[in-house]
Every structure is written in structure tokens, then in C-alpha cells.
Amino acid sequence: MRGAFVKSAVWSLVLVAGLLVSLAAFAFASHALATNDAERHWRERPVVLLSDFGTVDRVEVTVLAGPKADHDKGYVGEPGLSLRLDVDGTVWLFDLGLGARDAQDTVRTNARLAGVDLSETDAVFLSHRHRDHMGGVSAEKSGRLDLTGMGRDDLRIVAPLSALDMPEHTVTEIAQPAVLGEGVASLGPIRRALFIGPVDEQAMILDVRDYGLIAVVGCGHQTLPKLAERVVEVFGRPVKAVIGDLHYPVPEGRLRVAGIDAQRWLASGGGPLSPAGQQDVEAFATWAFESGTDLFLVGHDTHDTVLALPTVNSLAVGQVLILPEVD
């Protein structure tokens, strides 16, 4: 009887091991196919020229979600990103963070403490369909943003193609670079094959008079080289500043899913077998120094050691950045 039990247990372990190997093989094969598809999309990207799309005089950025927060003042920190952009009086809400943290609504709590009235929002810009930018898991699964109290009656939403399912709202779906207003544009989605699945991420581009082009970036899944190259292709000039984040979770990320460092092992580099590493950070530091680009990073998916680089300005929740800077 005991021998039969042991034999049955061994066979069960073999079957489980075989199943796990099969699942892993399927996951890696799917990732390889997605990587080929993303590279095809990049090679076949449309030629779009938007060198003259107007200018704005001033941009005021208030950080509403991010990991660095003054808890003594009541601010809530989280591994998500949300920015309020006042662009010459037009108010944009760029991404919605991860959502709830420590039983508090992150964006709404931080906005109240920062003196921001979310009901005055004119438009929402969604960089990509990930939970730490949409307001949580439910929003990511459903494609529906919780915008209660977050905008005017004629609120406009700008999102990558097929990222949202909100027919009751006016959603401008972006498939390629497009002008959104005077001095405001979308770089258009750039596809990236992550191990957790492909993602199309867009960045907002602002042309600020007497300053230059600003790229407001959610995660940087596009990769910095492609983002910088696409800006020059579309707008005819290099980017002067990057605000948001660029995804350098080295040596580790801030968001864990089922105990796994999801930002580093599943959403960076080439996947679990080749995640982002120190060589990527060194290449980034070299680019930042040589290009002279102003970097203002929230760091929701970038490690503190990267934020501490001399070329990086780290932004905290509640902090206000104004460009051009006022003397």
C-alpha cells in the first residue's frame, strides 16, 4: 500500500513538473512572438511630420501619485504615477496612479492636500493600459477609468487605440502621432513586448516657447532610444526635457505581484532571462549627460540609485514644477 502511495505521489509530481515546464515554454514562446510583432510595428511606423504644431508659454506640473511622499503632511505614496498639468490654463490629468493605498484614494487625497481641484480638469491623458496608471486592477481589467469628481461635464479623454471601453465619454483614440491642441501633441503609441504582455504606450509632447520640447512619459516602456528617435522623426528636434518616468528598476522595482518584483523581472529588458541591468543604467546616464536633457522623474518604476544620478531631478508627491522656471 505504501509503495503504491509513493508511486502515485511521484507521478503527481512528474505531471505537475511537466505542466509547469509546458506553461513556461508557452510563455516564453508567446513573448518571442510578441517581440517580433513589436519590432515589426516599429519598422513599419508611419511617417508623420508635426514640426509646427504651435507653442505654449508655461507648463505647471503637480505630482499627484508617486512613491516619494511627505507622510507627515498626509500625502500618500505608491508605486504609480499621476500628474496634473496646467498648460496655459488648460488642465490635463496625466494618468491616474495605482489607486488605493493604505485604505486611501491616492490621487484624490494628494490632490486635496496639494490644493488641487480635480473637478476643474479639462482633459485626461492615459499613457497606457496598466494598473499603476489607470487607477488599479479593476480599471485595467475593464478598460474603465473611475473619473468621479475628476473633470468638467465636457471632459475629454485621450488614450491609445483600444485601451479603453468608455462609450459614454468622448475618447480620442490615438494610433499615430497627432496634434491635441495648440502646442500639445501625442507622440503616438510605441509597442513594446513585455513578458506580462504587449503594451502600446504614448507620450505627451509639449512645445514650450523659449524652452523647447517636453516629453511627458508614463512608464517609458517605449524605451528611451526609441522615444528619443521618434521625437526627432516627428517633431524635427530633440527633446529638451522628460517629465514622468523612464523605467529603470535596477537593482529592483517598487511593485510586487504575488511576491515577484514585477517591474524588473516581468516588465523590463528582455524578460526574466534578461531584465534591465546596470549596463542599461550606465547607457541612460551617458545619454542624459551627453544630450543635456532635463530629467524630472517621479520614480514609480525607477530605483532610488538612478534617481540620485547628477543628471536626474527627483519629483515627490505634492511637488510643483514650472517650466520655463521662474527666476
UniProtKB/TrEMBL annotation:
Lineage top rank: taxon: Bacteria
Keyword Signal: yes
Keyword tags: Signal
Signal peptide: 1-27
Phosphoprotein in keyword set: no
Annotated InterPro entries: Metallo-beta-lactamase_dom, RibonucZ/Hydroxyglut_hydro
Entry coiled-coil feature ranges: none
PANTHER family attached to this UniProt entry: METALLO-BETA-LACTAMASE SUPERFAMILY PROTEIN, METALLO-BETA-LACTAMASE SUPERFAMILY PROTEIN (AFU_ORTHOLOGUE AFUA_3G07630)
Name of the protein in question: Metallo-beta-lactamase domain-containing protein
